[in-house]
Each structure stands twice: as structure tokens, then as C-alpha cells.
């Protein structure tokens, strides 16, 4: 497989999926790297929720070997989220009459939590990021949703948010974690809008793209990973957990005890995915 070098023209999109999603994506990327597909060198990174964590980690230039080891050893400071919160968020979004109402309802769910556990949550995100400044050599974009307006927001180095704030906002699952205040606004998880927000690729126009989606299904019509990828006009590869990875990740995406298993499963899955990626990364 071709070594993509430091100027990989393929955009890398990393979707939401909780703690197990982070672990699976890190394992997958480490396995792909071992097989010769250096996706960590992608110039453009778009991260949503769990994917915002991994995107920021990749942009820090910390080795995937090290990030993989963190997942296996449980090096980050994690706290288990309330199990019912995630289900409540999904139910809230799916029961809304339309897409905008769904985002407003999700925002209200997040706002209803106030800032409970905000300090502990901040420490968790802080422990995940090896570097807390926006990269100068990458186009890193982090997706969140404005809790009050229901609109999607994309943070980057030119915006009002620090990298730590942006990642914390992107991963603020309503009903699980508190909203994140940034520059007078309040934000919730970007995954409430779409599990990957892969449609943002159209604003960038890369030569190709790889979309990694731990949870490809959508809570709203037209926003699933498969639907958004199928609408793209550039060569794009979508990677989702295979059967073994799904078993390893389990049903509770917020369970820290599943991290090591999910990371190993992602690494093993990469052996198969690397062959599929070859035509794409050699464009």
C-alpha cells in the first residue's frame, strides 16, 4: 500500500460513538497505519463527538502507537455516564415532529442539566488531549450544536473556541453531560445533528475522503453515515464496526470497561479494511 506521507489529500471524517467509539477508532487507525495506510497524516480532519477527541489527538502529532496504548491501559481519566441519559437523548430527538424541533428539544435536554459535573467532565476531556492548542499544520474542524438555536456549528482555529472547549462541546451528550458555554453561547453534542456530519466535506472539496463511523445510524432522516456518504461526489470509503467489533464495543457506548476490547477489535478489523482502502488512498 502506498505511504501517504505528510500531505494526505484524503479528508478524514471521524464520527460519534462514546468511549467505545474512541477506542475502536484509535485501534482501527493504528491497525491501518501498521498496514501502510497513514490516515493520521490527513491534512483535513472533521470530528464529531467521540470523533472530535480522536481528530484532536491525531492533530497533536502524538503517535498512534501511544494513543493505542492509552486505550489498552486505561490511561485517560474517564467517568461512566448515566446509562439512561443516552437513551433519553435518542428518544427525545426521534420523537420531535421535524429536524429543527429535534435539535431544539435536544438543546433543552442539555440545558436542563445545567452545569452539574462540569468540572469533572472538563478534567476528562483535558486528560484525553495531548495538546490543547489548535494545530497550525492541519485543517481541523470540530462539530457541535447550539443548544439555544438548534443550529449546527463548526469550530476551527479561526473561531472563538479553544480546542479543549470545542472538543468538550462536541462531546456534550444532552442528558448525559452538561452543556458547554463558549463566547456567550451554549453547546451540545454535534452527533445530535448527524453521527458523522460527513456532508461538510462538500465545503472542503478534497480529492477523496475516508469516513469512520462507530455509530453510523442516525436519529433524524437523511443524516446517517450511509446516506451522507452516498450523496458525496468524490471517492469516499465508509468504515463501520464489523460484527466482532460490535460485540467488543457492547451496548453501552459510555462504559470505560469496554475500551481495551474495542481498541483491539478495531485493530483486528483494520486488517480487512486496509485492502479496501488501497484504491482510494493511491488516487
Could you give a short account of the major beta sheet?
8 strands, mixed
Q: Taking Cα atoms only, what radius of gyration do you get, to the nearest Å?
A: 17 Å
**Beta-strand share of residues:** 5-15%
General form? globular
User: Structural class per helix/strand content?
Assistant: alpha/beta
**Got a strand count?**
8
Number of alpha- plus pi-helical segments: 10
Question: Overall mean pLDDT score?
Answer: 90
**In sequence order, what are the helices and strands, one letter per element?**
EHEHHHHHEEHEEEHEHH
Give the % helix. Answer: 40-55%
- Poorly predicted spans: 1-6
Query: Alpha-carbon distance between the termini?
Result: 12 Å
InterPro entries: Acyl_Trfase/lysoPLipase (IPR016035), NTE (IPR050301), PNPLA_dom (IPR002641)
Domain PNPLA: 12-202
GO biological process, one term: lipid catabolic process
Motif (GXSXG): 47-51
Helices and strands in order:
Elements: E1 10-14, H1 18-35, E2 44-48, H2 50-59, H3 64-73, H4 83-94, H5 99-111, H6 118-128, E3 139-146, E4 152-155, H7 163-170, E5 180-182, E6 185-189, E7 208-212, H8 225-230, E8 236-239, H9 243-249, H10 259-281
Parallel strand pairs: 1-2, 1-7, 2-3, 7-8
Antiparallel strand pairs: 3-4, 3-6, 5-6
Helix pairs in contact: 1-2, 1-3, 1-10, 2-7, 3-10, 4-5, 9-10
Motif (DGA/G): 189-191
Domain PNPLA: 12-202
Protein name: Patatin
Description:
- One of its GO terms (biological process) is lipid catabolic process.
- The active site is at 49 (nucleophile), 189 (proton acceptor).
- GO terms for molecular function: hydrolase activity.
- This is Patatin.
- Helices cover 42% and strands 14% of the residues.
- The protein is of the alpha/beta class.
- Strands 1, 2, 3, 4, 5, 6, 7 and 8 form an 8-stranded mixed β-sheet that branches.
- A hairpin with a 5-residue loop joins β3 (139-146) and β4 (152-155).
- The longest helix is centred in the C-terminal third of the chain and has 23 residues, at 259-281.
- It is globular, with a radius of gyration of 17 Å.
Amino acid at each position: 500500500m502506498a505511504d501517504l506521507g505528510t500531505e494526505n489529500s484524503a479528508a478524514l471524517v471521524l464520527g460519534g460513538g462514546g468511549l467505545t467509539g474512541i477506542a475502536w477508532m484509535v485501534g482501527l487507525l493504528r491497525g491501518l497505519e501498521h498496514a501502510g495506510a497513514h490516515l493520521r497524516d490527513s491534512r483535513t480532519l472533521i470530528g464529531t463527538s467521540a470523533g472530535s477527541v480522536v481528530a484532536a489527538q491525531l492533530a497533536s502529532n502524538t503517535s498512534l502507537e501511544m494513543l493505542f496504548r492509552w486505550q489498552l491501559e486505561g490511561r485517560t481519566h474517564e467517568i461512566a455516564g448515566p446509562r439512561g441519559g443516552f437513551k433519553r437523548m435518542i428518544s427525545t430527538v426521534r420523537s420531535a415532529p421535524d429536524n429543527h424541533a429535534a435539535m431544539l428539544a435536544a438543546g433543552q435536554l442539555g440545558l436542563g442539566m445545567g452545569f452539574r459535573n462540569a468540572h469533572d467532565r472538563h478534567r476528562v476531556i483535558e486528560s484525553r488531549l495531548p495538546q490543547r492548542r489548535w494545530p497550525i499544520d492541519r485543517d481541523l474542524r470540530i462539530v457541535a450544536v447550539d443548544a439555544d438555536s438548534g443550529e449546527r456549528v463548526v469550530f476551527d482555529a479561526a473561531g472563538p473556541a479553544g480546542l479543549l472547549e470545542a472538543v468538550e462541546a462536541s462531546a456534550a451528550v444532552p442528558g448525559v453531560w452538561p452543556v458547554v458555554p463558549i463566547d456567550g453561547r451554549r453547546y451540545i453534542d454535534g452527533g445530535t445533528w448527524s453521527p458523522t456530519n460527513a456532508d461538510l466535506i462538500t465545503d472542503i472539496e478534497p480529492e477523496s475522503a475516508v469516513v469512520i463511523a462507530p455509530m453510523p445510524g442516525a436519529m433524524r432522516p437523511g443524516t446517517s453515515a450511509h446516506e451522507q456518504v452516498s450523496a458525496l461526489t468524490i471517492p469516499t470509503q465508509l468504515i463501520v464496526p464489523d460484527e466482532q467489533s460490535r460485540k467488543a464495543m457492547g451496548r453501552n457506548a459510555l462504559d470505560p470497561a469496554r475500551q481495551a476490547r474495542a481498541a483491539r477489535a478495531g485493530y483486528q478489523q483494520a486488517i480487512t479494511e486496509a485492502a479496501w482502502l488501497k484504491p482510494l488512498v493511491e488516487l
